[in-house]
């Protein structure tokens, strides 16, 4: 069992010039998630088990096993993220602002900030959130 107090979190915040409802669609609709993150069988239902799927590479089968933990429409979404022997948790928080929405992504449960998993996640999430902003910008 992992000692929660000893784990590290990766937090990325970005203000987007879009209402929370628009960002929420891109976070919770499978085809839109596939545009900015990975193919998936996601459903915004607490307890739903799903997978994110990417092209396998040496040392990784391309699958992230997940389960929806929390759904508060237009406010908060949380799911498990299990890959390569490490289980972490991803939480999205949407806070309305004068100019749109403050999007906060936190991935918690890393053993340290020095490991390859943490560094890879930091690189990956910055790229994915850029993709998310592009996807949201194209929504009606």
Can you offer a commentary on this structure?
The chain has 140 residues and is of the alpha+beta class. The chain contains three helices and seven strands. A seven-stranded antiparallel β-sheet has the order 1-7-6-5-4-3-2.
Summarize the structure.
The protein has 140 residues and is α+β, with helices and mostly antiparallel strands. The chain has one domain (8-137): START domain (Alpha-D-Glucose-1,6-Bisphosphate, Chain A, domain 4), CATH 3.30.530.20. The protein is built from 3 helices and 7 strands.
For this entry, give a set of tags:
140 residues; alpha+beta; Alpha-D-Glucose-1,6-Bisphosphate, Chain A, domain 4; globular; 3 helices
Task: Please name the fourth-level CATH homologous superfamily.
Answer: START domain
Write the CATH architecture name: 2-Layer Sandwich
| Spans where pLDDT lies below 50 across 5 or more residues | none
| Average pLDDT number | 94
Which CATH class? Alpha Beta
Briefly note the structural class of the backbone: alpha+beta
Query: How helical, in percent, are the residues?
Result: 25-40%
Reported by name, the CATH topology is Alpha-D-Glucose-1,6-Bisphosphate, Chain A, domain 4
Record the strand order, biggest sheet: 1-7-6-5-4-3-2
N-to-C span: 45 Å
Q: Which of globular, elongated, flat, extended, rod-shaped describes the shape?
A: globular
Please give the number of β-strands. Answer: 7
Biggest beta-sheet profile: 7 strands, antiparallel
Discrete helix count: 3
Assess the beta-strand content as a share of residues.
35-45%
Total domain count: 1
Instruction: Give the H and E element order.
Output: EHHEEEEEEH
Measured on Cα atoms, how large is the radius of gyration?
A: 15 Å
């Amino acid at each position: 069992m992992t000692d929660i107090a000893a784990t590290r979190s990766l937090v990325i915040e970005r203000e987007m010039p879009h209402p929370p409802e628009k960002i929420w669609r891109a976070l919770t609709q499978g085809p839109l998630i596939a545009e900015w993150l990975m193919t998936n069988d996601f459903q915004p239902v607490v307890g739903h088990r799903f997978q994110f799927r990417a092209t396998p590479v040496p040392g990784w089968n391309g699958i992230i096993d997940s389960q929806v933990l929390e759904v508060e429409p237009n406010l908060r979404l949380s799911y498990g993220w299990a890959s390569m022997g490490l289980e972490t948790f991803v939480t999205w928080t949407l806070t309305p602002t004068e100019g749109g929405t403050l999007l906060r992504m936190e991935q918690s449960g890393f053993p340290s900030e020095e490991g390859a998993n943490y560094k890879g996640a930091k690189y990956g999430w910055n790229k994915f959130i850029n993709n998310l902003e592009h996807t949201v910008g194209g929504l009606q």
